[in-house]
Please model this.
Amino acid sequence: MFHQIAYTPILGLPLVMWGGLITFALLCTTGTLGYLVFTGKMPTGFKWHKRCAMATFAMGFLHGLLALLSYFGQ
Model:
């Protein structure tokens, strides 16, 4: 069941790959926000970096869980 969900094609790529791409984009965004906060170029401070980090963790967890369940849950 999870194998069918994880490998459902969306715009030609499987869902699990889209999850990985979104996780990577969130990770790059989190790093960029952290750098901007560290150098003082972002006036809002640590708030958005922290929110983005939580979203990255949640998306990474869902992506990993879907990949593991599709592999072991056959």
Summary: The helical segments are 2-6, 15-39, 46-72.
